Amino acid sequence: MNLLTASWLPIRRKSGAAETIRPAQIVDRVADDPIMALDWPRADFRIASLEFLIGLLATAFPPKNEDIWCETWEDPPSVEALDEAFAPVAEAFWLDGPGPRFLQDLENLQSGQEPVERLLIDAPGDSTVKKNTDLFVHRQRIMALGRPAACMALFTLQSWAPSGGAGNMTGLRGGGPLVTLVLPREGASLWEMVWANTPFGVPPSEADLPRVFPWLAPTIGSGKDGTSVRPGHNAHPLQCWWGMPRRIRLDFEAAEDGICDLTGQPDAVLVPGWRQRPYGASYADWTGMPYGAGASIHPLTPRYRQKKDAEWLSVHPQPGGIGYRHWAGIVVNSSDTHRLPASTVLSWRNDRARNVAASLTPRLLAAGYDMDNMKARSFVESEMPLPGVVDPVRQEALDALARAYVEAADQVAGILRQCVREALFGKGTISPDATLFSGLRERFWAQTEGTFFDLLHQAVLLGDGDDIDLRRIWLRALRRVALDLFDSAVMLTPDTGTTEAQRSALARRRLGAAVAGGGKEGQALMMVLKIPVPVTRKATSRMKQP
Questions:
Q1: pTM of the shown model
Q2: Which terminus of the chain has a smaller tally of CB atoms within 10 A, N or C?
């Protein structure tokens, strides 16, 4: 089965029709009944398939510059044009057969067979099964996969590989990276989604193919006598899309009337298991390296560093999901420039959004596994508006306003958590990061998110006007939500003791003063929002003295 010539990607069209297509057909009937979505039964497969298609275009059909990108946006290629562009790399996309196999070790590995369900990142591992603790995600749900599902399980694992014990290497971006994608408009077609995130570049030469697709050559192993895989040293930069940290070989079996346990689709060949050997590729120096025309590796993943001149690392999802609190770092640079968005987001906001219709209403899709080492806690996926303006100066002002909103909200969330802790337990008796307070913080972010985006949209429409009124509205929203959450967490009853009641009153007074601009905490908040600090009565009386 060749992944570029066979029909294996499940899709759904605007009309509701469900089909399977080959990759070049993403532009099929784009004018009258476009493909709107990939139709996998798993969210991680859907996001990974978008990565696959973007990576394929970036490798075999990249725009050379902004003009060509815009022309192709306005006039998509034909299916035949994409087939022709993909043909030079087709030999790298055989999933099975006697030669090199897609994302599988060139060597026919000798080892015991693993159950096929363990290709899935969230499947229970050996330790979980032995302890009989697979309570939510049970073992033996999937005994055999059809080739399409097996391919996507393999691609997902190799791209996002978490730590898996000694010799099981993590993915090129570390285990479970955050993926951020621009959705160019409401109701965007699959082609539009993929092309909006395809970076500039040049197709590789035939001689470079083994350095782009590592399964075309013997594995560069790690371990005692191994070496790291580095861009420009022993790998082509385009390998960022096709990383292969695990040494894996799928086992294929002919199956008359075979059915995939995951998708329910028929396939004459099934994958019941796979074999692996330790110490595959160890990727180094990929995050933060230059890519194409000023972008960065990996183009879809934001990055951060702990301090200046420290190593750049890929961002990973964390408990609580992705929301506007992460705006600085996934949409705009953080104030200290230690957190940077994915280059696909920067490219859209700085160039592409200005070169296509200004009436588009883009959104940001952020997704990935929240990992605890080798254990998947959850798969996180969220969408949020991506407001912007055409004028670069106004865009900088809008970004600065968004940073101020987020920083102010973060300060108020911290004060709220401290005040609730003081009210309930007094000072220094319980960690402010305890579950009760973490949940309180999450509710604060959730209840202020709608106002955040409403005010950003108002700022877009404001033009060159003063945004001080919007800043004051944001402060009032923070104050209202913070006080409401405090009152719901700190309940006074007739049985409440005098000490507890006094403690609660003092804590609420502290919170109220801070969100009104009083005290050091309030002054810091006002400084962030650039709102004049209220003049206290004492200060007023001193000013009136002769």
A1: 0.92
A2: C
Instruction: Give the CA distances from residue 8 to residues 4, 5, 150, 457, in Å, rounded to whole numbers and listed in that order.
Output: 9, 9, 11, 41
Q: Which helix (H) or strand (E) holds 441?
A: helix 435-462
Please enumerate in sequence order all residues whose Cβ is within 8 A of that of 351, keeping only pairs 6 or more positions apart, or say none: 66
Per-residue pLDDT 10s for the chain (546 aa) are 999 999 999 999 999 999 999 999 999 999 999 999 999 999 999 999 999 999 999 999 999 999 999 999 999 999 999 999 999 999 999 999 999 999 999 999 999 999 999 999 988 765 555 555 554 465 458 999 999 999 999 999 999 999 877 889 999 999 999 999 999 998 899 999 999 999 999 999 999 999 999 999 999 999 888 899 998 889 999 999 999 999 999 999 999 999 999 999 999 999 999 999 999 999 988 886 544 444 447 899 999 998 888 888 999 998 878 999 999 999 999 988 899 999 999 999 988 988 886 557 899 999 999 988 778 889 999 999 999 888 888 899 999 999 999 999 999 999 999 999 999 888 766 665 566 777 899 999 999 999 999 999 999 888 666 889 999 999 999 999 999 999 999 988 887 788 889 999 999 999 999 999 999 999 999 999 999 987 666 544 444 454
Neighbours of 257 (CB within 10 A): 7
Task: Report the distance separating Cα 241 and Cα 272, nearest Å.
Answer: 27
Residue 356, SS3 per DSSP: coil
137 token code pair = 């995600």
**Assigned token pair, 84:** 């022709």
What is the token pair recorded at 205? Answer: 């030469």
Distance CA 118, CA 175 (A): 16
**Cα 46 to Cα 41, 190, 276, 379, 490, distances in angstroms:** 8, 11, 25, 12, 43
Q: Is the peptide bond before 298 cis (omega within 30 degrees of 0)?
A: yes
Three-class DSSP category at 168? coil
- Three-state secondary structure call for residue 192: helix
